[in-house]
Amino acid sequence: MSYCWNNVLIKPDNSIRDALEIINNEALRVALVIDANQHLVGVVTDGDIRRGILSDLSLEAPVSLVMNLSPTVAKVGATRKEIVELMERKSILAIPLVDDERKVIGLETLHSALHRPKHQNPVFLMAGGFGTRLRPLTDNCPKPMLKVGEKPILETLLNQFLKAGFNNIYISTHYMPEQITDYFGDGSAWGANIRYVHEETPLGTGGALGLLPEDIPELPLIMMNGDVLTKVDFQRLLEFHVNHDADATMCVREYDYQIPYGVVKGEGNRITSMVEKPTQRFFVNAGIYVLSPSVIHSVQKNHIIDMPTLLEQHMCERNNVLMFPIHEYWLDIGRMDDFNKAQSDIYTLGMLS
């Protein structure tokens, strides 16, 4: 039984944001919703929250709107073997333990699931940009090699993928490529297998896919901009893509924009409604993708193309391009303000090792 299961208890009127903090901060990756007498009323997982975000729910909405009202539970006294068999049959990683009155007594986890499997799926890190908005820092250094904390951004990304079980790494280079290739070499010092593709001329955000070697594994590929700092769960991202048989999956980030004026709508010269300083919500591209082999092979060698254009082409073919909303920490280090923020954030994110 987990020693910290009490840390994942939450009330129905707590916010979705509160549940997110529990899921992100605790290793159990689940929140148990209880009433005043500690009776189980629901369970919230990462997937429940993502579905709520896609349904346009605010993170300040009550968690009761996204919780699973009929979760799988085990009775106190069930054997470890029975519980493990139940979790494996239901494909779940954790299961609440309840008494006859449905009061939460504990939480059992599938121990083997805590050890991440090794993935053969390739990872493609885009590190060829000029980083002009970060000059003069990038006058003599490619942006992915700028240090955040004590390590280059690209090394932090590499370590994140290695921790998640991905070690088949490809890196796209263009601007000052030798600084990247000399630093990482073949990746063996990190326990990775690193290969490089070099853009002689910039090919857009998707064009480098056409330079990947022919012997790349015929598996979904995770593609990511080399200047993004994030704690997104790459294993869950890949599982989402595979389970939905997607051609491509784009990570998206919620972005709120408040109009600084009262918005007036009308018909002719008659006012029909007025809203004072409304907030509009959008999903924006987070620069992280999963691409199936068919999408990768559709990019010809030395063909200039941006990712949005490439994905739009495949949307027209099968309409099977999906979005994966991320609520984890995410920062695009594109401007000096972002770079300075990253320098302070890195010490609180647990990403230094």
Automatic annotation (TrEMBL):
Coiled coil: none annotated. Keywords: CBS domain. InterPro entries: CBS_dom, CBS_dom_sf, Mannose-1P_guanyltransferase, NTP_transferase_dom, Nucleotide-diphossugar_trans. Residues 1-59, 67-123 form the CBS domain. The keyword Magnesium does not apply. PANTHER family: SUGAR-1-PHOSPHATE GUANYL TRANSFERASE. This is Nucleotidyltransferase family protein. The lineage of its organism: Bacteria, Pseudomonadati, Pseudomonadota, Gammaproteobacteria, Alteromonadales.
